[in-house]
Amino acid sequence: MTNLPRRRLLDIWKVLAARSARPGDEGPADAQDALYDTERLVCLLYPAMRMPALGFANPDTTGQDVLAALAPFGDHQAVPRVVTDICTAYFEAHTAADGRPLFTGGPLRTLDPATAPSSAQMGLETVESFSQAVTLCLSVMTFVREFERHVRSARTRERLDNLRRAASRRLTYAMTALRDSFVAATFPLGSDAARAVFATVFPGGEPDRRQVRALMDRLRPIRSGLHGLGARACGPPGLDDEDLLFSCGWTWGRARPADAPEPGRFADPVPSLYFTVAAMDGIVDLFSSRRTLLFGVLDDDQHALVQQLLARWELAQRFWSALARFGGTWPLQDIPWPGGDDRSDYPSLHVASIVIHNLMRQGGADEVPPDFELGTLVTVLSELAARGKITRRAGPDDPAVALHTPGVTTPLPGAELLGPPLGWAVTEFAPSLLKRTLQLAALTRVMEERDTLLALADRLTEHVWNRRLDTGPAAGLWDAPGRVYATSPPSPAGLSWHMTERVVEVLVVAGSGIAADLAPSPRLAAVAADMLREADHLLAQEMLTRSAHAPAVDVELQLVGAVLRRARNQADRRPAVAIALASEALRRLDALCAAREEASRGRV
């Protein structure tokens, strides 16, 4: 995984481009399944936004391997124009007659297998769709901004301008909907909901008053932040009442107000772990890409929405991280994490994902996550891989196989207003676990933990790659769980852009991790500083003790000085490189010293 993300992304692009270039084979889906098309386009445009070396907006700098993968679109001049056509068709297909963007579709399931979703339920808009739309629209707007710099045709520039406006409208709608889907719930300390929280945080038994007060004190800053958003913005009143416990996060869709119904708002204001993680993954794209924030991609209203979403993102990740890491032994380590009706390992994976979001947010040079916290997460991810029968063999009728196929159904409370009780199929356990493993590997500074995580990533990658389709026009894409797990009845194989998009996210994370600098090791930095101090002193001594002018020696001393300057420049970011350079300088200085000593004895 760490060596081949670019090649594997291009392999996916080959299949995607071939399908998109065949009329009728991969055209836009009907308006009832906008998420299907969104995920398909994310597979193409998201890697180009996050990995500039894969970009194709500038015809003059597109890589040869990129052109080979996108050959069905044409040559280097044709590729960005064909992508423009595909994106334009997408926005036209998924915009209502009144100009409102459509966000329908997804793996909906009724909780009763004997029933089917109603037509009204098939038109529901979900946080998953909003989050994917944020990623796609940012990618499209970045592509347009780069491509238009190399276009002279007035007609093409007009089409790009129309595409930008369509993407911007959809982005604004998605960001606003994500804001409206964030909720907070309050409940008395003696309620069933509070007891469920206590059972999670205090697994040893009923907590005493002191323990409860410690938890409430830990959550007080988050409570204040939620109260600052306003009750109308995120949930019911009572957030300032310290006799009430609370939770926060994203529900599955735009939350239904308690005071008066509003069109398009059906979701009960109850946080969902799955949709909280889905929302956070999309929101992080708004502020993790410098090109998004600095290159004029967003307008003033969208910048304001970014700040509102960032505040909610911070509060949600801090809330769940506080619960997961409360006390001495983390509650997260006690797998499975209680998830209401979901008693699988998915809630543990979701909470671990939020904690990793929290640690990545702390990942600046002045606030590096503590090694012991990363070590705990290494243990949690390794255990999840074993429990999910990825690093261990699955037995006949093993219940853990259900994590992957047919997956776990996350309820959508409130959707029953439009039909039978409804749920959302969650099947991406393996790629989600792989993504978090790679993100954690990029944070750790302990070589043993990094090696453990990369070895786990290799096992997870093998599992994910074995699930590719091996026949038909979609061969090379996902998903064929039956190639890994034998189930009765056999697990169906078929193209899933949902699973394929998750794998693309993993590859982008792997590529970004390789491109980023590793966090410098404090131990190596200390060694580098000591070696540079000694080398500087020896160089000064050599220059001081030279009594005769020798051009060859002067050149050598100048070279040593240049090597040491380079080593000092690398010491903060790449201490191991600084050590190697300092070693070379010390070797040369020692050779000069030995030569001088030999000459003083008359042996030269």
Can you give a write-up of this model?
The protein is mainly alpha-helical and 604 residues long. The strands form two sheets. The protein has a three-stranded antiparallel sheet, with no helix packed on it. It has a two-stranded antiparallel sheet with strand order 2-3. Helix 9 runs antiparallel to helix 13 and helix 19 runs parallel beside helix 21. The radius of gyration is 28 Å and the shape is globular. About 2% of the residues have low confidence.
TL;DR of this structure?
With 604 residues, this protein is mostly helical. It has 21 helices and five strands.
Essential attributes:
3-stranded antiparallel β-sheet; 604 residues; mainly alpha; 5 strands; 21 helices; two-stranded antiparallel sheet
Topology diagram in text:
Elements: H1 5-21, H2 34-50, H3 64-69, H4 78-93, E1 108-110, H5 119-122, H6 127-147, H7 154-181, E2 182-188, H8 192-201, H9 209-229, H10 231-234, E3 244-250, H11 273-288, H12 290-294, H13 300-324, H14 346-361, H15 371-387, E4 408-411, E5 422-426, H16 429-443, H17 447-465, H18 497-515, H19 522-545, H20 551-570, H21 575-600
Antiparallel strand pairs: 1-5, 2-3, 4-5
Helix pairs in contact: 1-2, 1-18, 2-6, 2-18, 4-7, 6-7, 6-11, 7-13, 9-13, 11-13, 11-14, 13-14, 14-15, 14-16, 15-16, 15-17, 16-17, 16-18, 19-20, 19-21, 20-21
